[in-house]
Design a protein that fits this description.
Length: 125
């Protein structure tokens, strides 16, 4: 049972832009919808919908931090139908808009880069 849930988690993480409805996952894994929902909650301690949303948001955070892709493209890559809905969910769960999150993470990178260059300068003295 736990192996099935782990396989589902792997599938979800690798197919974030695809249809990840409970109906579709039940078809893919040959279980009925209520069974996989109960099994997932029992083993993971969160609902399938929560897991999917969190996986999508985690990947969105990674893409916002590490790429210059437009927010609209990131939204589509992680499986949100519209950039407006993505922005609303992101802000509600993360506490900042995707654009503000990206700007803050870039500021942190710059601070770290400046600090690292200062540390290198001190070593050279």
């Amino acid at each position: 049972m736990a192996g099935t849930v782990q396989t589902m988690c792997d599938y979800i993480r690798n197919h974030l832009a695809d249809d990840l409805s409970v109906t579709r996952l039940a078809e893919l894994f040959n279980y009925n919808q209520s069974y996989i929902s109960r099994l997932f909650k029992q083993i993971r301690g969160e609902t399938l919908s929560q897991y999917i949303k969190n996986a999508r948001l985690k990947q969105a955070e990674t893409l916002l931090k590490s790429t210059d892709l437009p927010v609209q493209e990131i939204s589509a890559r992680v499986g949100f139908d519209t950039v407006q809905y993505f922005s609303m969910v992101f802000r509600k769960e993360i506490g900042a808009t995707p654009t503000a999150f990206r700007a803050a993470s870039q500021n942190i990178k710059r601070c770290h880069a400046s600090r690292d260059s200062l540390l290198i300068d001190k070593k050279d003295r």
